[in-house]
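Checklist before submission:
- one chain only
- standard amino acids only
- sequence pasted in full

Submission:
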Amino acid sequence: MKIAIVLNTSWNIYNFRMGLINALKDKKHEIIAIAPEDSYSHFLEEAGCKFCKVKMDSRGANPVKDFALIFELLFIYKKVRPDVILHYTIKPNIYGTIAATLLRIPVINNVCGLGTVFLNDNLVSKIAGLLYKIAFRFPRKVFFQNVDDLRLFSERRLIKPKIGEVIPGSGIDINYFKPGKFKRNKKFTFLLISRLIHDKGIIEYISAIKKIKKVGLEARFQLLGSKDVEHKRGIEESIIDDWIKNNTVEYLGSTDDVRPFIDSADCIVLPSYREGTPRTLLEAACSAKPIVATDVPGCNNVVEDNYNGLLCQLKDSDDLAAKMTQMISLTNEKVEELGRNGRKKIVAEFGEEKVINSYLSSIEDLEAHRAS
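Returned file contents:
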């Protein structure tokens, strides 16, 4: 079969979907990667994918502006004529599904997370809900990354329950993210890995750091991730520069390989407002690092309170500071135990092969339907 994979960045396909792509290639399927062109696009071609460039703004939501994406994807799909299309992220899920349906091409969608639009109750969120309701009448299968998102879509009648299925995020290669020998830093080190946008809880993290420093606790606080000032919810560069100038946080920039940064930290923090299944927490837990995260869908899918980390309240910098302070106070044995439990949980529940098998099974069902 000819299978198209559509995402909002080539970077995302290359970093998170190559396991699936390789498994599909092993089954002799032809793969077409459809995404905006970036520095990772050529890696997809070198890996044996055909690459098709599409214009797509991954920042913010403007349904009127984005509506043109239907016609662009319609042109691409008509040109390459895939037998099935795998959509990921909000815009491909909505506009790609509409385009594919017009051409009667079956689709399998993946709701990686609900994004900013579902965190607010405004006109944009209402339009997004309506668009989901229209588009999600047509997929053969919709994968969700946590039970809460599937329940929300079912309760709002955005999806037929029989086509929804929960899978463990994007899965993770447990052999790529391996725990090193336990060693606690002289100054306990926290690390937050994320794009610098409000919805990841960056402001709450900075506020918690200030509270911890105010009472004189000795620790290091790091921030790793790209600035995204063009995003509707992006944090202004002047604010970030002020944090750096005042030594509030160690800003580490961005990287293509988070492993050495995770290995050098004692605890990973993510005070996000809502997630699908956050990749950074999968990577942290797989690397046997304890976690402090918000008790919200997605995060609490990965973190069990007092088992492999600590959960804090949403948008509550006081509680976040309290949980980070609690983490500092734990013995080496307890910190190591939390990390070890995290690794155990990831191996049992979030291995990449579980996600790949769900996709292979769905594609095999489509093949059987075509043959009948």
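Reviewer check: The first strand starts at residue 2 and ends at 6.
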